[in-house]
């Protein structure tokens, strides 16, 4: 086998381990090579937003169709990964249009076929789906929302109304003047009684806002181009059939209401699509982080700096190399974790509580990690990391979306950790191949034992504090939140390590095994090193081992450094999709070509010094 052939074989093997279903990705990857996805100079935020809608349409045309995307989550997750890499605003649109809007309608429309026409329109993207839950005064506490839908048996209609300024729907992407169909969450009132929160299908705009719907734009959000707006209802009339009751509740035409489940469960069902939504956003964000690491690694191998008589490249500098390789390991860990949880979700492997808990932990861990990775990459590319054409700044904006929407990271992580403290823990089945550990610092059993020990002791600490507390339940839990966040983090780290070690168990070639072992070690030992003082105080690690941690980390980095190109090639994000100058074979040449397409800042007119002075000093009108 030639050197190139063995290089290709390792890349292929790693790619297969990372992306288990390439055929789901292929159509979207091809679509992203279309010029529509190239970087465009000088667009306004509104123009970039419009472009995102056109891009979503194109991805849709290349895919299996909306109905399949909504039914087969792994295909939608694949679309979301490519959307995130080429245009993060398109990722947000896809999440809302397919999953939150069409997914909720399909899941909860009950047995009737009445909403078929509306679903057809959405499936053809003749209308875009939006989701209106959050209100100005109700974010993470959205279950307490005030918007009301009062049912009138006479007219067989609901009157959808915003009772005051606190209840305006905040943040839905209703701003752009294209047809939009909304899933609106509101309190159902029938026969004078509040029946809890339900979703309703509401035409929001057909170009202009529909009667009874009032839309106001929101001010600028730097780095985020979505057309988020404020939307209120002024006695909008909605037909009886547009309630989405699900299979456990029903409203008779005469207004009689029946439900087998509690109001809390009804709310959870109305928001049910937020669970796969977390996996879609996390998968997209991690895909963007992979692209950022791939670009940074490629660039770091060709960019020259001081040293070796001017021949040293960035990767030759130990500090730079160690930062980039750390993010390479992190992004491998988050990729294995997110893909594993996406598969578990698609195969219905967990019960409802287990699924919610694992997905919440995964979303928080993966999106916080990806945000960190992208920020490090931005800095490690120097000034090049500032330009949209190099993609990385767009991914920084994406981080602000993913950590807050579809379940705010802190809130969902705290809730998942609370359950763990209460004894409901769905997170750690034993990893095959990890037996009793000795103290070899490069042995996966050692890493795993320490991380699980930390998790168990933190849980014990939380239980003890709870037991000793004399304050109210809210105050006790509230005081424990920093500890709960740490429990969530360590639990997710253990999950990520397990998925990496399982991938290591499946790897066949010595090079792939060698790389995956070192990447898992970097991820685990760095996590352990972060709390090494605690480990020593707890008697879980001796002082000599604590002192040796930096050396062990150096050794692992040295092992993967020669393979960094193969490791990022396995991400399979080609330059034909990224089109970033720093990802090109020759970034100098690529910048020279790019200069032609950058819209000039001046209008080309000659001005006298006086004219220039006036232009720069006169107050804006
Ligand atoms: C880009 C973007 C797009 C969005 N699109 C939509 C959309 O299409 N439709 C829609 O309905 N909504 C949308 N949202 C709104 C989103 O769902 C909310 O932002 C989210 O639910 C968080 O609510 P909040 O922003 O009001 O934060 P808040 O509730 O004000 O929380 C802020 C912070 O307070 C703390 N906190 C709050 N509650 C708790 C708690 N219980 N425990 C511990 N700490 C807590 C946390 O630190 C949290 O980060 C979007 C948001 C963003 C950022």
Automatic annotation (TrEMBL):
Organism of this sequence: Actinopolyspora erythraea
One Pfam family from the record: ACOX
Gene Ontology terms describing biological process: fatty acid beta-oxidation using acyl-CoA oxidase; lipid homeostasis
Any one GO MF annotation of this record: acyl-CoA oxidase activity
Keyword field contains Oxidoreductase: yes
Name this protein carries in UniProt: Acyl-CoA oxidase
SUPFAM superfamilies: Acyl-CoA dehydrogenase C-terminal domain-like, Acyl-CoA dehydrogenase NM domain-like
Disordered as annotated region, ranges: 598-621
Ranges for domain Acyl-CoA oxidase C-terminal: 448-586
UniProt keyword Oxidoreductase present: yes
Cofactor(s) for this UniProt protein: FAD
């Amino acid at each position: 086998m030639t050197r190139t052939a063995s290089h290709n074989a390792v890349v292929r093997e790693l790619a297969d381990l990372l992306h288990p279903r390439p055929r789901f990705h292929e159509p979207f990857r091809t679509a992203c090579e279309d010029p529509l996805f190239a970087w465009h100079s000088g667009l306004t935020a509104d123009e970039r937003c419009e472009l995102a809608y056109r891009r979503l349409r194109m991805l849709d045309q290349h895919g299996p169709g909306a109905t399949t995307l909504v039914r087969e989550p792994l295909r939608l997750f694949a679309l979301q990964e490519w959307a995130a890499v080429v245009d993060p605003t398109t990722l947000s649109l896809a999440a809302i249009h397919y999953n939150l809007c069409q997914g909720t309608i399909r899941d909860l429309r009950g047995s009737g076929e009445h909403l078929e026409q509306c679903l057809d329109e959405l499936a053809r993207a003749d209308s875009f789906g939006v989701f209106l839950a959050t209100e100005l005064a109700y974010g993470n506490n959205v279950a307490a929302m005030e918007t009301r839908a009062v049912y009138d048996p006479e007219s067989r209609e609901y009157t959808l109304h915003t009772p005051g300024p606190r209840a305006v729907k905040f943040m839905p992407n209703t701003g752009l003047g294209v047809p939009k169909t909304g899933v609106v969450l509101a309190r159902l009132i029938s026969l004078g009684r509040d029946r809890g929160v339900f979703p309703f299908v509401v035409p929001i705009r057909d170009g202009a806002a529909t009667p009874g719907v009032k839309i106001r734009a929101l001010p600028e959000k730097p780095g985020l181009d979505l057309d988020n707006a404020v939307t209120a209802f002024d006695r909008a009339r909605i037909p009886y059939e547009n309630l989405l009751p699900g299979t456990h509740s029903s409203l008779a035409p005469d207004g009689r209401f029946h439900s087998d489940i509690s109001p809390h469960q009804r709310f959870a069902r109305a928001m049910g699509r937020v669970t796969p939504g977390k996996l879609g956003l996390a998968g997209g964000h991690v895909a963007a982080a992979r692209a950022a690491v791939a670009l940074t690694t490629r660039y770091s191998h060709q960019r020259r700096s001081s040293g070796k008589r001017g021949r040293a490249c960035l990767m030759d500098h130990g500090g730079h190399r160690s930062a980039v390789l750390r993010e390479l390991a992190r992004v491998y860990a988050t990729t294995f974790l997110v893909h594993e949880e996406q598969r578990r979700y698609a195969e219905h492997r967990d019960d409802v509580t287990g699924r919610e808990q694992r997905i919440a932990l995964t979303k928080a861990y993966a999106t916080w990690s990806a945000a960190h990775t992208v920020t490090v990459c931005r800095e490690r590319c120097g000034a090049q990391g500032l330009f949209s054409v190099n993609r990385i700044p767009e991914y920084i904006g994406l981080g602000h979306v993913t950590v807050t929407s579809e379940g705010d990271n802190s809130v969902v992580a705290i809730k998942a950790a609370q359950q763990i403290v209460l004894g409901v823990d769905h997170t750690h089945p034993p990893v095959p191949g990890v037996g009793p550990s000795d103290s070899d610092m490069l042995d996966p059993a050692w890493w795993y034992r320490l991380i699980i020990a930390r998790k168990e002791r933190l849980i014990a600490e939380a239980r003890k504090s709870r037991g000793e507390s004399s304050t109210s339940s809210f105050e006790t839990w509230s005081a424990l939140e920093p500890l709960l966040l740490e429990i969530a983090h360590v639990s997710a780290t253990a999950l990520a390590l397990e998925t990496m070690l399982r991938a290591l168990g499946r790897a066949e070639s010595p090079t792939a095994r060698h790389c995956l072992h070192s990447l898992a070690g970097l991820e685990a030992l760095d996590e352990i090193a972060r709390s090494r003082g605690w480990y020593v105080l707890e008697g879980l690690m001796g002082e000599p081992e604590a002192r040796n941690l930096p050396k062990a980390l150096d050794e692992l980095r040295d092992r993967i450094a020669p393979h960094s190109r193969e490791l990022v090639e396995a991400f399979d994000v080609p330059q034909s999709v990224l089109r970033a100058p720093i990802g090109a074979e020759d970034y100098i040449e690529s910048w020279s070509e790019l200069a032609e397409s950058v819209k000039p800042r001046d209008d080309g007119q000659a001005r006298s010094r006086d004219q220039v002075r006036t232009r720069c000093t006169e107050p804006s009108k």
